[in-house]
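Bit of a strange request maybe. I'm writing a small parser for structure token strings and I need a real example to test against, not something I typed by hand. Could someone generate the tokens for this chain?
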Amino acid sequence: MVRSNALHLGLLAAALSSTLASPIARRASGPSDLPAGPPGATGSLYGNERLLGPDGNTAPPASSALLPEGSYDLVPGQKQDEDNGVYLDFNSTPNPQPIRGSNGGTDPGPRNYNYEKINSDLYAPPGTDSGDVPNAVWPMGLSHNRGGLNGAGFARQQNIDVLPDATAMAGVDMRLSPHAYRELHWHQSSEWSYIMNGSVRLTSVNENGETFIDDLNAGDVWFFPQGIPHSIQAKDEGTEFLLVFDDGSFSEESTFLASELFLRNPKSVLAKDLHVDVSAFDNIPQDELYIFPGTPAPADIQKQNITGPAGVIPQNGTYSYHFSEQAAYEVPGGSIKIVDPTTFPTASMFSAALVTLKPGAMREIHWHLDSDEWNFFLAGSARITVFTAPGSSRTFDYQAGSVGYIPVTSSHYIENTGTEDCVFLEVLQAPKFTDISMGQWLGLTPPQVVKDTLKLSDDTISRLPNYKSYIVEGDKDLTTTNFTSKD
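Reply from user aminoacidic:
Good idea to test on real output. This should exercise your parser:
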């Protein structure tokens, strides 16, 4: 009996040992286990230990990283010395390569050709780019669009969520269909606006009970200080405008709206405040309106010119400036016109320049003393190299609809890289639009100091300007490197 029990125990132990050593037992814990997947699934999610380390496989690779002969062409300027850094037009070739002078190499992919073509200075950077510079470009085309009600328009924004270095300013691109409203509202931040097309009617009331109403057209500017309530309505042709706020964390989602003001207060309190019965609020909107269709504003603006005992806001405190009627300052290579508190006093810390660059021309190398620079490109294309101390620089490319952002005192230029005029806004948080011109600085520095420092020739030093150029002429051929004829 004892021997029989011992025999049974031995057989049981052997069976358990065999079971634990079998593949079926290891399926519960090994990386090569089949998952409990759908019917028809085959294979394994994992490999096995045979794949670790050298395997002695001498078979040729399944694919090659070499590009076939003749599968790409270099564009004009790509063979120049990388430090020349001329603009490379990658739109002229179907298969651009990240090569500049002796730098870079071919790219077998995977790739996004569209991004590479419009960002040639990132894909094949000038040899002078160095170190790390915060991103300085954001295309509004990559921003989320929030639609208005019933086709009334849309809005999209740029803030620190998408351009982290832009801490001092944020931007909104807003479209209103004909007669549509941006509903009655106010902000925690001050609002500066440039109308890109169409026309609007604005209304507002300030803290003194003084009223404001005005019609503005494409190219005009308005400004509302933080907390000032206002309305914006598109006229017959609709409108699209930029809004620039003096806070990089600004969000359209944090706007104070009249509809929400009524929804978030007890009706009895609203009735007491407005001297009515609570039934007066039976039909108020049950959600925010944001952007919504409206009835046409009367052509005669005086029909909406409501005033109280305090009267209207005086002209030196007005919220609008008819920038479209200001003539531009014309220079070789383009034009520039400035609006700042000198001529628009209410916008006490907003200064802006509207710049037009002819093909090949460039906004000269400069920097600002007391403000970051927020750019918006209205037409054409451009590039900017941002230099930050002590030795970093990076070149960025821009197209119409792009936002640029450059930190205070960082030097930069803006070069037209297209065949059409490049038009853009430079917006500063400053009481006056000012900058330091590199050319003028060197031209007004004793020649000996310049020569000892930069080792420039006497001929080069003699060409340095003693005036601020704002814009310098160039050549439509962007591979040009000799500009002595532009004196």
